[in-house]
Design a protein that fits this description.
It is a single chain. This protein has helices spanning about 25-30, 40, 70-85, 120-125, 135-145, and strands spanning about 1-5, 35, 50-55, 60, 90, 105, 115, 130-135. Strand 1 (about 1-5), helix 1 (about 25-30) and strand 2 (about 35) form a beta-alpha-beta unit. It is α/β, with parallel strands linked by helices. The longest helix has 17 residues, at about 70-85. Helix 3 (about 70-85) packs parallel to helix 4 (about 120-125). It has a four-stranded parallel β-sheet. A two-stranded antiparallel ribbon has the order 3-4. Strands 6-7 form a two-stranded antiparallel sheet. The model has no long low-confidence stretch (mean pLDDT about 95). The structure holds iron/sulfur cluster. Iron/sulfur cluster (SF4) binds near residues 13, 38 and 99.
Length: about 150
Amino acid sequence: MILVSACLSGVECRYNGTAFPCVGLAELVSSGKAIAVCPEVLGGLEVPRLPAEIVEFRVRTSQGEDVTDAYQAGAAAALRIALENGCKSAVLKARSPSCGSGRIYDGSFSGRLIDGDGLLAGLLKQAGITVYTEEEYAVRIEKSGGEFE
Ligand code: SF4
C-alpha cells in the first residue's frame, strides 16, 4: 500500500482550496493500491486556511499564528493510518510544511527553500517508510515504464 497526499489524488484540500492532481495517483487510490490522506485536514484545519511554514521548529501561518499543535496532531494521525495500512512508501506533495520531503519553504513566505522535511514526511521516514515527492514519483514512473512500488 502507498500513502499519498490527498491533494495529489485530486482532493481540493490545499490551503487555498485547490487540488494538485498528479498523473496516475487518483487511479492508484481508486484501485485500492494507495490511500489518500491530508494531514492538515486530519489535524482539524479548515479548507481554505492561511498558508503556513515551519519557522524554528514551529509551524506558523502567514499572519504569525502558531498552528504547530494542529500540524503535529494531523501528522501523527496520518502516520497511524500509514502504519495500520502497511504502507511501505509514500508520494507526498513537495515543499509543504506537512508533506514536503527534502526541501521545504524557509519560513519567510518568500518562496525560498531550505533543506528539511514537513512534519508528516519526517515521521514517515523515522518509521522506515520511503517518501517520494510527486516530482520524484513522476521520474520513477517515466524510467520504469509506468510501474511504481
Ligand atoms: Fe496536500 Fe499535504 Fe497540504 Fe494536505 S497537507 S493539502 S495532503 S500538501
